[in-house]
Amino acid sequence: MFEELKNCENINILGYEKGPLAEYLGTPDEALALLKESHGVSLDPKFKASFHRFSRLGIHWRGASENSAVGGEFYLVHLLNAIIGGRPADLASSRSSEKEAALYSDFRIFDSQPRGGVGTFAALRLRDGTDEPEIWYFHMNHGSTRMEIEYQEYLNNLLLTRGAYYWQYLFTDTPADYYHSNEITSGLRRAIEFLSDVFPNNDYSDLRARLHDRLA
User: pLDDT digits over 140-190, tens only?
Assistant: First the structure.
């Protein structure tokens, strides 16, 4: 998908980063064992099936010519790097409630939009007593919302959406009135149509249905 975006004539690449393979972490089995031994974090064995090897992998793109209003971005870090890196620094502010501050302390960011985003990221929420972290999406202006998918499904949908801005909202229970000023709504609608035209071999009917359901 990364190379597909770079070689697509309908897309302008504004920046990308392809970090080295995290070979020092060994096999998925060894990496999960290291995580448990060094940080006391246990992950379900199914995480091995979605164990991308790059220490970091990111790309920032925008549609060419008349589609320049459509864009996307992702910046993935290795699963272990996300967890070992600890909670996001300075996320909680003086305006944050105790409940919000406690929630943020559980976050471990694995995907973000540092070039064109507005303080957005996806994070694992680590909780004691479970080996299946929740997935949350955070927007600096609108706060955090839990996603209805797991980490493995997140990566699958990232492949499909190519990181189009705000795709994560299609997998939350965010009410329709949250999509204020049509910023998110119009962006998602344009993105789905653009991706359908540029990548006709992919099926975007589920994304269309999800957007329709959230606006109904």
Answer: 878 889 999 999 999 999 999 999 999 999 999 876 566 555 678 888 999
Q: Which runs of E-coded beta strand occur in the chain?
A: 11-18, 56-63, 71-77, 107-112, 120-125, 134-139, 143-146
Determine contact, residues 54/25, Cβ cutoff 8 Å: no
Instruction: Tell me the one-letter amino acid at 164.
Output: A
* Distant-in-sequence contacts of 62-65, Cβ < 8 A, 24+ apart: 62/11, 62/12, 62/14, 62/116, 63/10, 63/11, 63/12, 63/194, 64/9, 64/10, 64/11, 64/12
Q: Does residue 171 sit in helix, strand or coil? A: helix
pTM above 0.85, yes or no: yes
Buried b (16+ CB within 10 A) or exposed e, 185-204: bebbbbbbebbeebbeeeeb
Backbone angles phi, psi at 104, to 5 degrees: -65, -30
Using the Cα atoms of residue 133, residue 139, residue 117 and residue 163 in order, give the sign of their dihedral. positive
Residues near 21 by Cβ (< 8 Å), separated by ≥ 6?
53, 54, 55
pLDDT digits (tens, 9 = 90+) for 37-79: 888 889 999 988 888 888 899 999 999 988 788 999 999 998 8
Q: Which of 198, 180, 142 is nearest to 9 (CA)?
A: 198
Confidence of residue 206 (pLDDT cuts 50, 70, 90): very high
